[in-house]
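tokens incoming
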């Protein structure tokens, strides 16, 4: 479980900072509030041109928070990443975000991987310094995530 954090944005390697992260709008806020008591989809994922294709592999991720502030910051970063990936359709052929869910203080999300070589080289990217910088923005580390890689094959 991620503990309450008092963090700076010194680890914001891409310099996205709070001012560039989209705020949580009314619709997302409503879904996040529902997720306190039941499992609710909060983000739809990338929904790229690969929709309907069977992925080569999937990565499932879960993280549990001890406070609402860090949970919401994580959701803001996930949404930012979804939106950023939508702007790169050439990458959507290789991978895409699946839907994100909230259940209590846990956020779960995933990645669909469409290319075997890309999956093998990128499946552990969550451990790199850039991602560690993102996690620090919501008081977490790579060790706070439960990850499962499932190869579905072609």
């Amino acid at each position: 479980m991620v503990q309450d954090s008092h963090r700076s944005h010194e680890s914001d390697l891409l310099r996205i900072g709070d001012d560039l992260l989209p705020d949580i709008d009314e619709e997302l806020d409503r879904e996040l509030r529902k997720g306190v008591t039941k499992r609710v989809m909060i983000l739809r994922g990338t929904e790229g041109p690969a929709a309907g294709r069977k992925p080569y592999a999937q990565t499932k991720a879960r993280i549990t928070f001890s406070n609402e502030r860090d949970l919401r910051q994580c959701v803001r970063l996930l949404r930012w990443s979804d939106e950023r990936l939508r702007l790169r359709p050439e990458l959507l052929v290789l991978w895409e975000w699946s839907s994100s869910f909230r259940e209590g203080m846990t956020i779960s999300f995933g990645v669909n991987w469409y290319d075997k070589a890309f999956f093998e080289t990128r499946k552990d990217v969550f451990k790199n310094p850039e991602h560690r910088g993102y996690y620090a923005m919501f008081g977490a580390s790579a060790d706070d995530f439960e990850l499962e890689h499932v190869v579905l094959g072609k």
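note: Residues 3-15 have pLDDT under 50 and may be disordered.
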